[in-house]
User: Which sequence fits this backbone?
């Protein structure tokens, strides 16, 4: 008889206070993984192929680490997702044994918590760099997430146009760009859809208005089609928030 898909799975994580915790997967469902510390550091060294760094997240009001530009793009997209209320990088070790009893471990790249309490676990790997040993780990992570009722995402290169647009808006994600009465004026101006620059001109001096407008687009209090390059005539309307 085949073993249950989660038999032998354990998770290890670092509590926000700094203590290390290891427990059975079945006991991990209530852990606030969006608040844990990374189980691995983000190290830089001469000649390395990847470019690690820290992303300042407007969702959590602090930094979230990444190990490559691909991870940076995906943590940015999580930060942009209005349903996400918390996230962490390198959130936990997942341990299990292979059929020949060899120990295997894996650290997913991100954990995100949605407003409705559901969770997302993300692994970032370009499609052309997924080797057989990687698939073993991704499949195991999928089974562990299925057991806990979490969504598992194995992501590669995102759409370049959407990423370019979101990256531009991300430059205005900090709340310092949220200035009244410009916010209220822009909401009123774009209550009916109109071109971006036309609306900015109606709201005041575009030099002062545009940073606030881009902030509201980042917050998705205003909306625009991000599947095409953002431009002066892009149609802006009321958003989802």
Assistant:
């Amino acid at each position: 008889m085949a073993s249950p898909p989660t038999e032998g799975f354990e998770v290890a994580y670092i509590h926000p206070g700094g203590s290390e915790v290891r427990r059975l997967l079945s006991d991990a469902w209530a852990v606030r993984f969006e608040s844990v510390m990374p189980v691995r550091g983000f190290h830089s060294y001469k000649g390395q192929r990847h470019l690690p760094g820290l992303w300042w997240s407007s969702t959590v009001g602090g930094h979230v680490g990444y190990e490559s530009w691909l991870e940076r793009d995906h943590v940015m997209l999580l930060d942009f997702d209005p349903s996400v209320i918390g996230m962490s990088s390198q959130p936990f070790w997942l341990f299990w044994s292979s059929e020949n009893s060899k120990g295997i471990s894996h650290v997913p790249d991100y954990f995100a918590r949605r407003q409705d309490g559901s969770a997302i676990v993300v692994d970032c790997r370009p499609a052309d760099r997924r080797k057989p040993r990687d698939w073993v780990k991704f499949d195991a992570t999928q089974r562990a997430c299925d057991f806990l009722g979490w969504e598992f995402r194995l992501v590669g290169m995102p759409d370049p146009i959407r990423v370019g647009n979101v990256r531009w808006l991300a430059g205005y994600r900090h709340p310092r760009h949220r200035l009244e009465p410009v916010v209220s004026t822009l909401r009123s101006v774009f209550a009916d859809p109109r071109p971006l620059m036309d609306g900015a001109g109606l709201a005041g001096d575009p030099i002062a208005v545009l940073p606030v407008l881009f902030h509201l687009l980042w917050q998705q209090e205003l909306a625009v089609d991000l599947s095409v390059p953002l431009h002066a005539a892009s149609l802006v309307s009321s958003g989802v928030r």
Q: What stands out?
A: Helices lie at 69-80, 132-148, 160-170, 182-189, 196-203, 206-219. The first strand starts at residue 10 and ends at 14. DSSP finds six helices and 13 strands in the chain.
